[in-house]
Design goal:
Strand content: 15-25%
CATH topology of the largest domain: Aspartate Aminotransferase, domain 2
Order of helices and strands: HEHHEHEHEHEHEHEEHHHHEEHEEEH
Largest sheet: 7 strands, mixed
Bound molecules: pyridoxal-5'-phosphate
Helix content: 25-40%
Shape: globular
CATH class of the largest domain: Alpha Beta
Strand order of the largest sheet: 2-8-7-6-5-3-4
Structural class: alpha/beta
Number of domains: 2
CATH architecture of the largest domain: 3-Layer(aba) Sandwich
Distance between the termini: 45 Å
Number of strands: 13
Length: 375
């Protein structure tokens, strides 16, 4: 490999490709509780609208609308309403990506490329920040979280920033609430983020905002070094369409617009996101159901003496096994593959298991299989 591909960057040759569902065959009927998608497809009513739009409105031979103006307008309105803002967000506050994954990469390109900066992440957290940084040759500084509640160890975080000289930390990535652990940022963590100097970009990834209903968007006018990321892939049930967006002050949004590919968002995806926003009264009530299910599943797992399960503000739960130290990772890997063989995909990550909340039937099967597997 390295001989024949000597034109490839040596650091990239050493990286393995990201595989969403690692390892082997899966049974035909499967409960997909490993990627935090919505358990329900779009309602027929919305699918018909999209089919109609494809038949009547979308010209397949034409490039997509490249400025995303209409969709930005709809997002600005939704984001204003959902954060109860007194001052309206406008299209100048929004940039749209091919999934928020694209926006993460754009931010890395805009800040750290060419040895200009490193990023700070607190693990366990969303793996994409580190994966994408590495593919761009950007250094990743990782600190660990407190075991009890997965809050940041602020002394360690501050030390990491003070220590990083060449290249300096230019971006801090925070998920709010965090994946895989489900905890939202608390007051002292937010205060620490507010205390960071203006030459550090603070990225607050609110992928699970609709579940947590907690947001920092109202602070953005005051903070020119903050940016919020959100996605249509989770509560809005549009993972297939790859639509994510950033909210920030216009100067920062301009930078993202500069970096993105000109036609990054297919016409059909733009339409799907617009239609989903128009019909949010139809789509978002499922969030309440999911939260109820999450609490039901949580209380059943909480009763299992062999498990430690944390409270969550998102559409998934995070758990670990009690009283296993050196063989913990092995045991988790075994549970994950046993469940997979039985038809339940869950995610073994960050020293624990992350389980998406699905339909109640899916959750019941998962509970049964998981409890059998640990006992
Ligand atoms: C799911 C998820 C995303 C993914 O977003 P896409 O819009 O599907 O690319 C981003 N951040 C976090 C923390 C996520 O869990």
């Amino acid at each position: 490999m390295s001989d024949r591909h000597s034109f490839i960057r040596s650091d990239l040759l050493r990286l393995a490709a990201y595989t969403p569902h690692p390892g082997g065959e899966t049974p035909a009927s499967i409960d997909r509780l490993d990627t935090n998608e919505s358990p329900l497809d779009l309602p027929d009513q919305i699918k018909s609208k999209l089919a109609w739009a494809y038949q009547q409105e979308i010209e397949a031979n034409r490039y997509p609308e490249g400025s995303h103006e209409e969709l930005k307008k709809a997002i600005a309105e939704y984001a204003t309403e959902s954060a109860n803002l007194t001052q309206d967000l406008t299209t100048a506050n929004i940039s749209i990506g091919n999934g928020s994954d694209e926006l993460i990469r754009s931010l890395l390109i805009a800040t750290c490329l060419g040895g200009e900066g490193a990023i700070l992440v607190a693990t366990p957290t969303f793996s994409m920040y580190g994966i994408m940084a590495k593919t761009l040759g950007v250094r990743v500084v990782s600190i660990s979280r407190q075991e009890s509640d997965f809050a940041l160890d602020l002394e360690m975080a501050q030390q990491a920033i003070a220590d990083s000289a060449r290249p300096p930390i230019r971006v801090v990535f925070m998920v709010h609430p965090n994946s895989p652990t489900g905890n939202a940022l608390v007051a002292r963590e937010l205060d620490w983020l507010r205390s960071l100097p203006e030459n550090i970009l603070v990225v607050i990834d609110e992928a699970y905002f609709e579940f947590s209903q907690t947001s920092v968007v109202s602070e953005l006018t005051k903070r020119h070094n903050w940016i919020v990321l959100r996605t249509f892939s989770k509560a809005f049930r549009l993972a297939a369409h790859r639509v994510g967006y950033a909210i920030a002050n216009p100067d920062l949004i301009q930078v993202l617009e500069k970096v993105r590919l000109p036609y990054n968002l297919p016409s059909f995806s733009q339409t799907a996101a617009k239609v989903a926003l128009q019909h949010r009264q139809l789509l978002l009530p499922l969030v309440t159901e999911t939260i109820k299910e999450r609490e039901r599943v949580w209380s059943i797992l909480e009763d299992e003496s062999k498990l430690q399960v944390w409270q969550s503000n998102a559409n998934f739960l995070y758990l670990r096994l009690q009283n296993i130290s050196d063989k913990h990772e092995n045991a988790l890997a075994q549970i994950t593959s046993k469940l997979k063989a039985e038809g339940t995909l869950i995610r073994h990550t960050g020293g624990g298991l992350r389980i998406t909340i699905g339909s109640s039937a899916e959750n019941n099967r998962t509970l049964e299989r998981l409890i059998a597997a640990i006992n």
